[in-house]
Design the sequence.
């Protein structure tokens, strides 16, 4: 593997950086957060276009896989979970919402380039990806691990921050390893060419069950949930100094809490007023049968974070 550093917002720079690169398969999992959805569309659509235009001269690409997510069904951040939404479980044939959405712009760039240059494509829609990725802007597992560690250190109650709907309803998630297997499967099997897929772990759960499981892993008691939303962004406001103290006492390698947590994104997921559960039948019918228990996915992240001295 040869790493290449480049700025996808710079068309000429991308072309120069990839002049000698000739991949057969391209996996796009990038996003740059902007202030408005109009800007999200402009910036994130152009990054996909710049990448695929830069790879065109080599003529080597056989498949492009694009990772988006359930905002395809729920709407972008500006209209998240609002308006008329498709029924759950979300199915791929439910199509696009009548709102501006940068996911749709990225898809259209892939579709246009694939039709122009003669390769296949796939679109992958995970739900709340868990994995180890320091500095990631959307990282529920690490955010909850840091939150639990602070509760353990300070004696604060380990409170579920979200809505009653999320506490009581069924939901699902996507382990990063499960997503990687799905990307490889769709990119190397002709039956999956030119299709969009949901990709989740394969189990469903309620947060009323999962929250106690997470608490047990950290040796905490889960605080009773009374239906009141207490966002992590509020609960963890001002925790930077506490985290620096924990890091110093326990010899952690990352004392900057902002490099680890994304409470705003976890709040968006756990605060939704509707059930969010995803149908995987399309992939199953085509032969993708991998499965990952979601509680084990959380525990694997926590164990790796502890091993790497990112949490105590």
Sequence:
């Amino acid at each position: 593997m040869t790493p290449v550093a480049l700025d996808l917002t710079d068309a000429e720079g991308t072309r120069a950086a990839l002049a000698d690169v000739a991949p057969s398969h391209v996996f796009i999992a990038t996003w740059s957060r902007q202030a408005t959805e109009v800007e999200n569309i402009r910036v994130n659509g152009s990054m996909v276009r710049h990448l695929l235009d830069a790879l065109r001269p080599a003529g080597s690409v056989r498949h492009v896989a694009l990772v988006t997510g359930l905002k395809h069904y729920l709407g972008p951040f500006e209209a998240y979970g609002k308006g008329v939404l498709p029924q759950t479980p979300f199915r791929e044939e439910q199509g696009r919402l009548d709102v501006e959405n940068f996911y749709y712009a990225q898809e259209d760039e892939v579709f246009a380039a694939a039709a122009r240059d003669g390769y296949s494509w796939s679109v992958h829609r995970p739900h709340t990806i868990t994995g180890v990725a320091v500095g990631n802007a959307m990282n529920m597992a690490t955010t909850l691990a840091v939150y639990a560690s602070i509760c353990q250190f300070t004696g604060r109650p380990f409170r579920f921050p979200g809505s009653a709907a999320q506490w009581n309803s069924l939901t699902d998630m996507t382990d990063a390893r499960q997503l990687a297997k799905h990307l490889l499967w769709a990119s190397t099997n002709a039956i999956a060419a030119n299709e969009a897929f949901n990709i989740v772990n394969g189990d469903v759960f309620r947060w009323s069950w999962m929250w106690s499981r997470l608490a047990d892993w950290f040796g905490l008691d889960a605080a009773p949930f009374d239906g009141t939303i207490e966002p992590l962004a509020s609960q963890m406001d001002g925790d930077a100094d506490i985290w620096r103290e924990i890091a110093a006492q326990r010899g952690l390698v990352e004392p900057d809490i902002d490099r680890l947590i994304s409470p705003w994104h976890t709040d968006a997921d756990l605060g939704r007023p509707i059930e969010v559960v995803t149908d995987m039948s399309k992939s199953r019918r085509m032969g993708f049968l991998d499965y990952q228990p979601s509680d084990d996915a959380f525990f694997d992240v926590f164990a790796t974070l502890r091993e790497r001295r990112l949490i105590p």
User: Anything to note?
Assistant: The mean pLDDT is 95. The longest strand covers residues 120-126. Strands lie at 25-28, 63-67, 120-126, 129-130, 170-171, 174-175, 195-199, 205-206.
